[in-house]
Design brief:
Chain B: This is LUD domain-containing protein. Chain B: It holds the Pfam family LUD_dom. The complex is a heterodimer. Chain A is α/β, with parallel strands linked by helices. Chain A has 22 helices and 12 strands. Chain A folds into 3 domains: 142 residues, Fumarate Reductase Iron-sulfur Protein, Chain B, domain 2, CATH 1.10.1060; 266 residues, 3-Layer(aba) Sandwich (Rossmann fold), CATH 3.40.50.10420; 71 residues, no CATH class. In chain A, strand 5 and strand 6 form a beta hairpin. By secondary structure, chain B is α/β, with parallel strands linked by helices. In chain B, a hairpin with a 7-residue loop joins strand 10 and strand 11. The radius of gyration of chain B is 21 Å and the shape is globular. The chains are: A alpha/beta, B alpha/beta.
C-alpha cells in the first residue's frame, strides 16, 4: 500500500502532526480532507456565506470595474519599479523612527524576529493578522527558544487550540462548527467555563476575556500588514476584531513581518485598495478596523517599531513574466470562496504559503516546480475561471495555472529518467506517427478495452493506467472505429 | 553582500528589461458621490447615518446646543459609571454628566484604569458617508489610540461638516504621518462559521452622535 491509500492516512487532517517534510502532493493531502465530511460541510457553509456577501458588496459600487482596473495597474506599476519603491519605503520608515530589516528567505526572517524578541527579553508575544509568519514558520522558532506565542484572532486561536492547520485565509477555522469550537473552548479556555454553549456570541466573548490580560501585559507583538506605502513609510492593517489594534497599540515593541509584494507607491493609492479589499474579503463596505501607522508616535502606541521585509521566493515569482501578475494579490480570499476544488478540500492540501487558487499559483511560483508537491498544485484546479471573475486586481489565475502546468512538463522533460506519463506519451507519439502502426494499435486496443468493460464502461484500467480510473470511468470504445467504418463503407 | 543588497539585486535581475516601465494607471473610478447618491449636504449626512446603522452601531442626530445632554443620556442609558476621555475634549460635551466619573488622559492613564473604565468619549478627524466610518487621527478631542480601544464602549461625536462622501475624499484629507484608525461599527469576528459576530477584542459597542451645526 502506498501512503496515499485511505487506510494508512489519519481520518482527520486536523488531528495529524504538523505537515511533514517533504510536503505530500495535493491529491494525497486532499484525500484525508475529503474523507472528513463534517469539516467539508462546515467549509461549504462558510465559503457560501462569504461568497454571497462578497458578491453583494462588489455589485454595489457603480465604479467597481474601474476600481479593479486601477488596482491592477497600480500593482503592476509597483512591481515593475519594486526596487525603487522598497528603497523609498525603507527611507520613509527610518525617518519616522522605525527600523527596517531585510530577509532574503524564511530562515533569515526567523533569525531577525527571534533576535528582536530575545533583545526585548519577552517570554510571551501576541500575534495578529499574519499569514506571512506562518509561511516562515515563526511560531515553532519562537517556541524552541521558550517564548509562548498567543494567536489572538478568534479563528487563529481556535486553530492553535485544536492544533489544526488553517483552512481559510480570512477565517482560518472555517472547517470547525460552533459545537466543535464550544468543546475546544470547554477544554482549553477557562474564561468560557467548563461547558460553554455553542453560541458564537458567547464564544467570541470568552475569547475576548481569555486574551484581555495577555494583551495588556504583552511586551512584544508580531503582526502582518496589508499594505506598505512607500512614499510615506506607512503600514496599513485591516481587521475586524480589534486584536490587530491591540497588538499594534499596547505592547512596547511592535514587529511587522511583510512580503515585499505588499508595497504600494503612494498614500493616495489607498483610496483604491481601501475599497477593493474590504468588499472582496469580508463583503463589508469597510472592514471594521483599518489601522495605519508611520514609524513611532511619541505618547501613542509602541516605542519601538521594526519592519521585516521578506523575499522568500517573491523575486523568483517576479522573474516569471506571466507569473508575476500573481504578485498583485492583496490576499482578499475571494478566489477561495468561489473555487469548487477549494470548497471541498479546504486549505491544508495547498501547503503553508497560501490556500486556494491563488495559493496554487503563488506556491509553485515562489518555490519552483521541482518538488512533487509544488508541481501538483497547478493541477489542483478545474480551470473553471470563477477565480478570475472575482479577483479584485484582475489576476488571470487560470492563465497562470496553465502556464505553470507547462513549466512542470518542461522541468520533467530534462530529467534523465522519464516519468511514466512521459514514457507513455513518447510511446503514443511513436505509434501515432505512422498510420499503419496507429491502426494496428487501435484494433488491438479496442479489443482489450472491450474485454475490460462492463455495461459499456471501464471502471478500472490495469497497471499504472489505473491511476487515471481511480476517480472516473472510461466509456468502452465502440466495436468498430471511425476509420474502420470509413474504410468499410466508403472505399 | 547584505540581505538588503541581495533582495534588491534579485528584484532588478527578476525584472530585467521590464524594470522601470511605468504602465498607465486608469483612474476612472468615482472620487465623489454621484448625484443619484447625494444631491445635497443633507443627503450626505443622511447616507452616513444609514450606513453607520448598517454597520450595527447606534447613531443619533443632535443639535449643536444639545451635545452635553445627548452625551449624558447615552452614558446614562448604558449605565456607565466611569469613562476615560482625551484631555482636550470640549468641556461642553461632558457638562451635563450626572453620576458618571470622567477621567482625563493627562497624565496618561495606566492600562488597568482604561480596562476598568466602562467607556470612552471622543471626537473624530473626519467621517465617511459611503462606508459609515469614523476616522480618528489622534488630533483634537481624540487622544491616543488606546483610549478608544481598551474600554468596551466608544461614544464618538461627529460634526456634520466633518462628513465626507467617499473613501477617496477621506484618503485625500488624511495625513498618513499620523496614526490613523478607521472605525466602521463595533468589534466583530468572522472566526466562527465565517459569520459576522459582534464583540471580539475591540469595543463591543459603538455609538455615534451626529451634531447638526
Amino acid at each position: 500500500m502506498t501512503a496515499s491509500s485511505p487506510g494508512t492516512t489519519p481520518s482527520s487532517p486536523r488531528t495529524s502532526a504538523p505537515v511533514p517534510l517533504p510536503m505530500p502532493k495535493f491529491a494525497t493531502a486532499a484525500r484525508s480532507a475529503l474523507a472528513d465530511t463534517r469539516s467539508r460541510r462546515n467549509l461549504r457553509g462558510a465559503a457560501a456565506a462569504l461568497r454571497e456577501r462578497e458578491a453583494a458588496a462588489a455589485a454595489e459600487p457603480a465604479d467597481w470595474d474601474d476600481l479593479r482596473e486601477a488596482g491592477r495597474a497600480i500593482k503592476d506599476d509597483t512591481l515593475l519599479n519594486l526596487d525603487t519603491h522598497l528603497a523609498e519605503l525603507e527611507r520613509a520608515v527610518t525617518e519616522a523612527g522605525g527600523v527596517v530589516h531585510w530577509a532574503a528567505d524564511a530562515a533569515e526572517a526567523r533569525r531577525v524576529v527571534t533576535g528582536l524578541v530575545r533583545a526585548a527579553g519577552a517570554a510571551e508575544v501576541v500575534k495578529a493578522a499574519s499569514a506571512t509568519t506562518r509561511e516562515i514558520g515563526l511560531n515553532d522558532a519562537l517556541a524552541r527558544m521558550g517564548v509562548t506565542v498567543r494567536e489572538t484572532a478568534v479563528a487563529d486561536m481556535i486553530v492553535q487550540l485544536g492544533e489544526d492547520t488553517p483552512s481559510h485565509l480570512l477565517s482560518p477555522a472555517a472547517h470547525r462548527d460552533r459545537a466543535e469550537i464550544g468543546e475546544l473552548f470547554g477544554r482549553a479556555v477557562p474564561a468560557a467555563g467548563p461547558d460553554p454553549a455553542a453560541d458564537p456570541e458567547a464564544l467570541a466573548a470568552a475569547a475576548r476575556l481569555h486574551l484581555r490580560d495577555r494583551f495588556l501585559r504583552a511586551p512584544v507583538a508580531v503582526t502582518g500588514a496589508n499594505f506598505l506605502v512607500a512614499e510615506s513609510g506607512t503600514v496599513v492593517l485591516l481587521e475586524s476584531e480589534g486584536n490587530g489594534r491591540m497588538s499594534l497599540t499596547i505592547p512596547e515593541t511592535l514587529i511587522t513581518v511583510a512580503g515585499i509584494d505588499k508595497v504600494v507607491p503612494a498614500w493616495d493609492d489607498m483610496e483604491v485598495f481601501l475599497q477593493l479589499l474590504p468588499r472582496s474579503s469580508t463583503g463589508d463596505r469597510m472592514t471594521p478596523y483599518v489601522s495605519s501607522w508611520t514609524g513611532v508616535t511619541p505618547g501613542d502606541g509602541p516605542r519601538a517599531f521594526h519592519l521585516v521585509l521578506l523575499d522568500n521566493g517573491r523575486t523568483k515569482a517576479l522573474a516569471d513574466e506571466t507569473g508575476r501578475t500573481a504578485l498583485r494579490c492583496i490576499r482578499c480570499s475571494a478566489c477561495l470562496n468561489v473555487c469548487p476544488v477549494y470548497e471541498r478540500t479546504g486549505g491544508t492540501p495547498y501547503g503553508p504559503v497560501h490556500p486556494g487558487p491563488i495559493g496554487a499559483v503563488l506556491t509553485p511560483l515562489m518555490r519552483g516546480v521541482e518538488s512533487a508537491a509544488n508541481a501538483s498544485l497547478p493541477y489542483a484546479s478545474t480551470l473553471c475561471g470563477a477565480c478570475a471573475d472575482v479577483c479584485p486586481v484582475l489576476i488571470d489565475i487560470p492563465d497562470v495555472l496553465v502556464h505553470l502546468r507547462g513549466k512542470v512538463v518542461e522541468s520533467r522533460r530534462r530529467r534523465p529518467v522519464p516519468t511514466p506519463e512521459m514514457a507513455l506519451m513518447r510511446g503514443l507519439a511513436w505509434t501515432m506517427g505512422d498510420p499503419r502502426r496507429y491502426e494496428a494499435a487501435l484494433r488491438r486496443g479496442t479489443r482489450w478495452a472491450r474485454l475490460l468493460s462492463r455495461g459499456g464502461r471501464i471502471r478500472r484500467l490495469p497497471g499504472l493506467l489505473g491511476k487515471w480510473t481511480e476517480a472516473r470511468d472510461l466509456p468502452a470504445p465502440p466495436a468498430e472505429s471511425f476509420r474502420a467504418w470509413w474504410d468499410r463503407t466508403r472505399t | 553582500m547584505s540581505s538588503r543588497e541581495e533582495v534588491l539585486r534579485r528584484v532588478r535581475e527578476a525584472l530585467g528589461g521590464d524594470r522601470g516601465v511605468r504602465p498607465p494607471v486608469p483612474r476612472g473610478y468615482a472620487r465623489r458621490l454621484t448625484e443619484a447618491e447625494a444631491e445635497s449636504r443633507a443627503d450626505v449626512v443622511a447616507l452616513f447615518t444609514e450606513r453607520v446603522a448598517d454597520n450595527r452601531a447606534a447613531v443619533r442626530h443632535v443639535g449643536a446646543d444639545e451635545v452635553g445632554t445627548a452625551v449624558a443620556a447615552a452614558l446614562w442609558g448604558r449605565e456607565t459609571k466611569q469613562i476615560v476621555v482625551p484631555a482636550d475634549l470640549p468641556f461642553g460635551w461632558l457638562a451635563e454628566l450626572d453620576g458618571v466619573r470622567a477621567l482625563a488622559d493627562t497624565p496618561a492613564l495606566d492600562l488597568d484604569t482604561l480596562a476598568a473604565a466602562d467607556g470612552s468619549v471622543t471626537g473624530c478627524a473626519l467621517a465617511v458617508a459611503q462606508t459609515g466610518t469614523v476616522v480618528l487621527d489622534g488630533g483634537r478631542a481624540q487622544g491616543r489610540r488606546a483610549l478608544t480601544l481598551v474600554p468596551g464602549y466608544h461614544l464618538c461625536v461627529v460634526h456634520a461638516d466633518q462628513i465626507v462622501g467617499t473613501v477617496p475624499e477621506a484618503v485625500g484629507r488624511l495625513d498618513p504621518a499620523r496614526p490613523l484608525t478607521w472605525i466602521s461599527g463595533p468589534s466583530a469576528t468572522y472566526g466562527i462559521e465565517a459569520a459576522r459576530v459582534e464583540g471580539a477584542h475591540g469595543p463591543r459597542h459603538l455609538e455615534v452622535l451626529v451634531v447638526e451645526d
